Amino acid sequence: MQSTEQAARELQDRAVLWRMGEIRASDVVTGACDALVAGLDSPALRILAACTRAEADYDVRDLLPPALDELGLTLPTVGSVAGQEAAVRALAARMLAGDLTPRELAFRIHQRFGHELPLAERLAGLDDEYDFLEYSDRTPAQLDADVTAEAQRLAQHPGVGTP
Description:
Layout: H1 4-19, H2 25-38, H3 43-49, H4 53-70, H5 81-96, H6 102-113, H7 121-131, H8 140-155
Helix pairs in contact: 1-2, 1-5, 2-3, 2-4, 3-4, 5-6, 5-8, 6-7, 6-8, 7-8
């Protein structure tokens, strides 16, 4: 079973990923259910967790902010540096959970943020290295290991405590 801190981090990551279009609203509802099971609780979280898949697309937009607020969690503004960094960290956590390959993580980060976001620069550079792998002396496994190490560093994000 997840700790409440892990559940809070997962819910916050899902919120960020939903806002950037990486996951569906129903995935946020699933995260709310997982948070309740892990021991987090608030009135707004219960309402969010009670949404059906059909309701999620319409209701998550209004129900998510109060649920996060009651838990002491934040949802950075879309397009802000904090929002972009939260998205990078959430994608890194997804890769570490096995939802993305290292190559997919590097590609998505590079595609979304280019070389403009300092926090993501290393992953964008590694994506470039994948593109030129046949001309280098590195192997795909070496690049995958570098991406995984960077994802581990990024996933250690602060700011989510037990409410």
